[in-house]
Task: structure prediction
Amino acid sequence: MADESEHVARAELTWLAESGDPLLGTLVRDCGAVEAMALIRAGRLPGGLGPSEGPGLRRAMDRWRAALEKVPSRDVVERALGGRLRLLCPVCPEWPSGLDGLGDAAPIAVWAAGVENLRFSCRASVAVVGARAATAYGSYVAAEFSSSVSARGWAVVSGGAFGVDASAHRGALSADGVTVAVLACGVDVAYPAGHAELLEAVAAQGAIVSEQPPGRTPSRLRFLARNRIIAALATGTLVVEAGERSGAITTARHARDLGRPLMAVPGPVTSNLSAGCHRIIRDWGGSLAASAGDVIETLTEAGPDPAG
Result:
């Protein structure tokens, strides 16, 4: 477990920086969060930098210092840490080891709410992602596949959005399975607002996770950064419906780059929402998933079946 000062410093950094900043990740890895915050507040670069490292880090340091006003007072940070939310750091027992695959772009820390141990839940899990404007076919497949894999003991990870995400979460909940929602806003922010009850149900039966601090609202860049977390948490990723340019394709790309199993559900060749899935199968070496059994088989090849 991180000591209190390191824990507080990592919490402060979630307010300070935007997601997936590899320069900040490198600074924290080399110096620790406490020293990193001290350097940022003082506007000093760490010692021992090579000639090529200084200019880029100096620009980043200026950017971080300008963002110091986003960091709340120590009292506010400590109240957040002492409330119903919990902050997970890489040395915490609940930290999911899959996030480490992101290297220096891994989260400095993640905020979580819910009943489930995140590390245990993600040990055997599948990310189910797809279009927000899902068709009836996509919504049905997402719910049915998620319900079936949950019944076999696999957790379902998704993004809490409309469409495929919501159907995936509901499918897992219907099977009394564990589901994890990864948000692009603070875990205390119901977004979309229409999913407030769904997110409460997810927290009651699983977990809600975000690298954004409490109270922060979503943005386009935060959604894109969130997708790497979904892919990194899960054993493998299943894309149900996705256009050629979509957030689900971004998640699939992260899964591919992480070397995780990647699957896609085929659809009508006339549907733009299936074009991304067909590309994953045709060009990216993704497995064709025509049933929940196909998903479980692919996942089991990558890790032990939790029901076994």
Remarks:
- Residues 4-111 form one domain.
- The first strand starts at residue 86 and ends at 88.
- The mean pLDDT is 93.
- The chain has two domains: 4-111, 115-302.
